[in-house]
Write a structure and sequence with these properties.
Helices cover 50% and strands 4% of the residues. The chain contains 19 helices and 6 strands. The protein has helices at 2-14, 16-20, 40-55, 60-67, 74-82, 90-97, 100-112, 114-124, 128-139, 150-160, 164-180, 203-209, 227-239, 271-277, 310-318, 322-335, 354-366, 380-392, 403-408, and strands spanning 148-149, 189-190, 249-253, 280-281, 294-296, 305-308. It has a 4-stranded antiparallel sheet. A two-stranded antiparallel ribbon has the order 1-2. A hairpin with an 8-residue loop joins strand 5 and strand 6 (305-308). Helix 5 crosses helix 10 (150-160), helix 8 (114-124) runs parallel beside helix 13 (227-239) and helix 15 (310-318) crosses helix 16. The protein is globular and about 65 Å long. Mean pLDDT is 92; it is low at 6-27. The chain binds calcium ion. Calcium ion (CA) binds at residues 212, 214, 216, 218-220, 228.
């Protein structure tokens, strides 16, 4: 399950999630931009798909209802082909995923849903802050749930064939959702690759883990009311082995001379073993014992270090990317009132710190070259602004940030 979900999430990093997680990196496909266009080859594919779907237990009536109005979405194919699986540094990822705005909105969302989240925590044993953080990363607390018709997007991607088998499996699962009566084809919407609702479940995850928590008889992760979606996320984590009352991990201090080869999830060992080496929390107390623990240094020895516990690996079952799991844990901590990451991050490949990159964005914007905010994360909009500035100043147009460029803007 985690692997199939990751296939989607890698896309979302560059698309809907990045769009949701911070404006500077690309734009999400919205329903306004996505219209079915006639495509005879797609229509022929649908005819053959319907036979395969019937063989998997989907009724003709469900197929008729689901494909009425569905069609080929070229924008979704373009999105799928153009996604770049670039990896952001943890610093950039956290600047977006745990921005002050996302923390503040998360605290408000947690207050707004306090009773629901308390009931969910009582049932599944997963902290309200963790569930809220996943909600914040996946859809910005419900603001960006995706409004693209899922049958159209998944059938288009299955027909397109780049990851055809995966998307056909998701399409069949989406038809099972319609057939079960949990929702209607009209309400079955999602992001461009079929991730649905407040916490962006793909259809197979929905079938495996979604729950009807508000008791209205439907597992509704699409509605304004996030109750079922949040409970479904907690159910997913519980069934993946969540340990109630334990943290995901924590930032730690390493003793001087710490051997960097001991880091990484493949080198997990007993907490007491790390404590004996001199690993402490940020206040200098011995590392607490939450069982087998790994030490991660996502940006090397000049960046922060984290001890990760069992629940970190459970978050990875939800989405198998270390930055995502640290992002969820850290955002949850921030929502709970804990401090930002305390250690500094090393300068980037251009020798720039995040403060340099923020200053660059502010100065470009002040000169009339809009970077879409100044979060210190160099995305497409910042690159465009750099290009426009370089062109206007008679400089070589590279689009690349640098300290020299920053100086030239003083
Ligand atoms: Ca319900």
């Amino acid at each position: 399950m985690a692997v199939t979900r990751r296939a989607i999430i890698l896309g979302l990093m560059a698309g809907a999630l990045a769009g949701c997680v911070g404006g500077s990196a690309g734009q999400s496909v919205s329903r306004q931009a996505v219209r079915p266009v006639p495509n005879p080859a797609y229509d022929a594919w649908v005819v053959s798909f319907r036979q395969r779907a019937v063989a998997k237990g989907i009724s003709q009536d469900t197929l008729d209802r689901a494909f009425r109005g569905a069609g080929y979405l070229p924008d979704v194919v373009e999105k799928d082909r153009n996604q770049t699986e670039f990896t952001r540094t943890l610093e950039d990822y956290l600047a977006i995923a745990a921005s002050d705005e996302r923390v503040t909105k998360g605290q408000a969302a947690l207050r707004r849903q306090a009773n629901t989240l308390a009931a969910i925590e009582g049932r599944y044993g997963v902290d309200a802050e963790i569930v809220t953080a996943i909600w914040g990363l996946e859809s910005k607390y419900g603001e960006r749930r995706g409004d693209i018709p899922v049958v159209s997007s998944l059938s288009t991607l299955a027909f397109d064939g780049r990851r055809g088998a995966f998307f056909e499996q998701q399409l069949v699962a989406s038809l099972k959702i319609v057939q079960s009566g949990d929702t209607t084809p009209e309400r079955l919407t999602g992001s461009w690759a079929g991730a649905m609702g407040h916490t962006q479940f793909i259809p197979t995850s929905y079938l495996a883990y979604a729950v009807d928590f508000n008791g209205d008889g439907r597992r509704d992760i699409w509605s304004e009311d996030p109750t079922d979606a949040l409970a479904s996320t907690a159910a997913y984590l519980q069934r993946s082995g969540w340990r109630t009352g334990q943290p995901w991990g924590m930032e730690v201090r390493l003793p001087s001379g710490f051997d960097g080869r001991l880091t990484g999830r493949g080198n997990a060992r007993a907490a007491a073993s790390w404590a004996a080496m001199g690993v402490t929390d940020m206040d200098g107390r011995p590392l607490p014992d939450y069982g087998t623990t790994a030490i991660l240094m996502p940006q090397g020895p000049r960046g922060p270090a984290f001890a990760t516990f069992r629940n970190f690996n459970v978050i990875l079952r939800y989405n198998n990317a270390e930055n995502y799991a640290i992002g969820v844990g850290h955002l949850a901590d921030r929502i709970a009132g804990k401090p930002p990451v305390q250690a500094g991050f090393p300068p980037d490949a251009q020798g720039m710190t995040i403060d340099d990159r923020k200053a660059l964005q502010r100065r470009l914007t002040a000169r009339g070259f809009d970077t879409g905010g100044s979060d210190g994360v160099i995305g497409a909009k910042t690159v465009d602004a750099i290009r426009a500035y370089q062109a206007s100043a008679g400089l070589p147009v590279t689009g690349e940030p640098s300290l020299a460029l920053l100086q030239s803007l003083r």
